[in-house]
# Entry
Amino acid sequence: MSSLFSRAYVKAVAAQLGFRSSIPDVDDDSVDLILQGRGLSSGIRNPQIEVQLKCTSKNTGNNEHLKFVLPIKNYNDLRGDGVLCPRYQRFLFLEWVSSLFLSHSCPALC
# Structure
């Protein structure tokens, strides 16, 4: 569920900035989402970035820093040489009580 929430959040922010988003058919290169701009006033025609998403509610760090253990494969895929598009890692840290995250009732749906 958290991966879907993370994707929805990044897609919503990107859409607000005028970027389109797509999901690769296969995730074998640590890319979860591709963001593409069109008609932007930058000097680059149709800019594109590739993003790996991580979402967690567990902070193993302290109050000042979020700590997340990233597998070395993901790290190497993101920093790889010779990639056409810039690659970024985005973390979404959620503090929630799962029972309060989503609620619904028949009266609310009617």
